[in-house]
Design a protein that fits this description.
alpha/beta, 36% helix, seven-stranded mixed beta sheet, 307 residues, Aminopeptidase, globular
């Protein structure tokens, strides 16, 4: 009976078409901090902390805003804001990851999500696409379908043009600006990870931070080790590349021949927020201060590291 029910649900979804248009002029896509007061060769990026949803999107999806927020890295932009104010540029995506994911490649598109997917296009989705978390998310954090029907491929291309491309244009501009000033640039891509994963990965003590270097390919060991030790000195448990070694930003912007390097940071959400209700906990400010202290130390280390 359950198999028949699932089959009927798939048929129902395949028959329904979801069409809407977003007025992108009403959206504030990204926010930059301290882009004109750069004192260090470091760029902070927060692609998954956006909390804004286009109204037209919310009216067309299959779930509440609260459930959609489970896909985001809540408050990560605020965690590192104080460090940015010392002279480190920070780029924040304001639009929710559930609408379009800026830390995925454009090719991570699932053709089965669209009623008018152009067969002439040779787009091969990656593993994230197949599990539902491509550039357009199919499911939420609880693995529930976000949409009750098939999407308009043309509408999704508008999302990428007006949100995704805007974020990456700003990030590339910041990297170029820092590179021109210092002759090199490091990008710290800032994320958070579910506490459940942090507990499963370690038997003794849950992970507090995971630093991703694409297994020593995107960032010199000395730099990643310095940042890790700075966090460890403050009592945090830090691991490298497992469970996260880096994603699209880490891979795409790493260009060692041009002296551009990337490092991904994942923070245990339970250390600063209530994951169920998406609110800061009483430890938020302490955790933010500790993290910013290490980010500031890293930025100063980078100046000396390249001398």
């Amino acid at each position: 009976m359950l198999e028949f029910s699932n089959l009927w649900e798939n048929v129902r979804v395949a028959e329904k078409r979801i069409d809407f248009k977003v007025n992108y002029k009403k959206l504030n896509i990204v926010t930059e901090y301290n882009a004109d007061n750069i004192k260090f060769p470091l760029v902070l990026a927060s692609p998954h902390s956006g909390q804004e949803f286009p109204r037209e999107f919310l009216e067309s999806v299959n779930m509440s805003e609260d459930k959609l927020r489970g896909n985001e890295d809540s408050f990560v932009d605020e965690l590192v804001l104080a460090a940015s104010e010392t002279g480190i540029p920070l780029l924040c995506m304001n639009i929710s990851r559930a609408f379009v994911d800026a830390n995925r490649d454009k090719i991570e598109i699932d053709p089965q999500m669209y009623y008018n997917y152009p067969q002439r296009e040779d787009i091969q989705g990656g593993i994230r696409c197949r599990v539902g978390f491509g550039v357009i998310h199919r499911i939420n954090a609880q693995r529930e379908n976000i949409y009750s029907g098939l999407l308009n491929y043309d509408e999704v291309m508008e999302r990428i043009k007006n949100v995704y491309d805007v974020y990456h244009a700003h990030l590339q501009a910041l990297i170029n600006k820092v590179s021109r000033k210092f002759g090199f640039c490091y990008v710290l891509d800032c994320h958070s990870m579910p506490s459940k994963i942090c507990s499963l990965m370690q038997e003794d003590k849950p992970i507090d931070f995971c630093l991703g270097t694409l297994f020593e390919q995107s960032c010199p060991n000395e730099v990643a080790d310095f940042f890790a030790k700075s966090l460890e000195t403050q009592g945090y448990k830090v691991v490298m590349n497992c469970p996260y070694s880096g994603a699209y930003t880490t891979f795409n912007y790493c260009q060692p021949r041009k002296n551009i390097f990337t490092l991904q940071m994942e923070a245990n959400r339970s250390l600063y927020m209530d994951e169920i209700v998406h609110k800061k906990n009483t430890n938020f400010q302490t955790f933010s201060s500790d993290l910013c202290r290490s980010v500031e130390a890293l930025s100063k280390f980078l100046l000396d590291f390249k001398k």
